[in-house]
């Protein structure tokens, strides 16, 4: 049975690093003795994209992640299902997530693209996060432009009454004035804790396990204590 509130790793857009952060959190919690499992509600662009498989590889355990629905077009789920001429209902996605959540002590739900991405029917990713009563970890880019995207995402979550754990600025390289000032500015603008995670790969090598460990090393104990996880 679920012992904690679900954690939702959501993004300010596509490609901000939700899967890497999900893998890092899942591995970190599992290594701390928690029954953590990642849940990807729907995977588009499959193959080759398979976020659940990335997390499972990062945790060296096929049971560390699951995905109930795969779609081939690399588009928003609702659009991908329409293009592929496949049925996709919000009720089915929600039921599958609830089933996995009920079977996991620390469920971590990875979002799909940004919060306003069409999921199924007239429902969006943010609707699923709200309906699952999850606490959100917001993943964003580190450089110029992230202040607006992140603040708008925070506003959207707050408007729906969704709990927010904090913000993770991904691929933080400390190379520009924008990067160096954005974390503090985001904390000032939103009132939430902001963490930074450095770039964890290059163009030639992708090692899920090493990337997950990199996330674990980058996240501070204070931030991890904000996660809705019961101490053992």
UniProtKB/TrEMBL annotation:
Report the record's Gene Ontology biological process terms. Answer: biotin biosynthetic process
Query: Under which name does UniProt file this protein?
Result: ATP-dependent dethiobiotin synthetase BioD
Catalytic center residues: 40
Alphabetic keyword roster: ATP-binding, Biotin biosynthesis, Cytoplasm, Ligase, Magnesium, Metal-binding, Nucleotide-binding
Q: Which GO terms describe its cellular component?
A: cytoplasm
Annotated compartments: Cytoplasm
Where is it chiefly localized? cytoplasm
Positions bound to Mg(2+): 19, 51, 110
Where do the coiled-coil regions begin and end?
none
One short Pfam family name for this protein?
A: AAA_26
Is Cell wall biogenesis/degradation found in the keyword set? no
**Residues reported to bind substrate:** 44
Which InterPro entries does the entry mention?
A: DTB_synth_BioD, P-loop_NTPase
What's this protein's family per the entry?
Answer: Belongs to the dethiobiotin synthetase family.
* Root EC class: ligase
Quaternary assembly: Homodimer.
Q: In which pathway does it act?
A: Cofactor biosynthesis; biotin biosynthesis; biotin from 7,8-diaminononanoate: step 1/2
Species annotation: Haloarchaeobius amylolyticus
| NCBIfam families tied to this protein | bioD
Q: What does this protein do?
A: Catalyzes a mechanistically unusual reaction, the ATP-dependent insertion of CO2 between the N7 and N8 nitrogen atoms of 7,8-diaminopelargonic acid (DAPA, also called 7,8-diammoniononanoate) to form a ureido ring.
């Amino acid at each position: 049975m679920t012992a904690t509130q679900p954690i939702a790793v959501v993004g300010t857009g596509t490609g901000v690093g939700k899967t890497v952060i999900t893998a890092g959190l899942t591995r970190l919690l599992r290594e701390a003795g928690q029954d953590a499992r990642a849940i990807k509600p729907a995977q588009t662009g499959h193959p080759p994209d398979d976020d659940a498989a990335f997390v499972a590889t990062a945790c060296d355990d096929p049971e560390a992640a699951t995905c109930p629905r795969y779609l081939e077009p690399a588009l928003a789920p609702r659009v991908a299902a329409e293009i592929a001429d496949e049925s996709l209902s919000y009720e089915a996605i929600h039921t599958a997530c609830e089933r996995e959540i009920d079977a996991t002590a620390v469920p971590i739900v990875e979002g799909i693209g940004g919060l306003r991405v069409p999921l199924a029917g007239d429902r969006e990713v943010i609707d699923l996060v709200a309906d699952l009563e999850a606490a959100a970890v917001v993943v964003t880019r580190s450089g110029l432009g992230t202040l607006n995207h992140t603040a708008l995402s925070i506003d959207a979550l707050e408007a729906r009454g969704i709990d927010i754990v904090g913000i993770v600025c991904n691929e933080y390289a400390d190379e520009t004035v924008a990067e160096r000032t954005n974390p503090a500015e985001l904390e000032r603008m939103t009132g939430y804790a902001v963490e930074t995670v450095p770039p964890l790969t290059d163009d030639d090598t992708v090692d899920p396990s090493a990337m997950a460990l990199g996330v674990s090393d980058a996240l501070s104990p204070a931030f991890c204590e904000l996660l809705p996880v019961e101490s053992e």
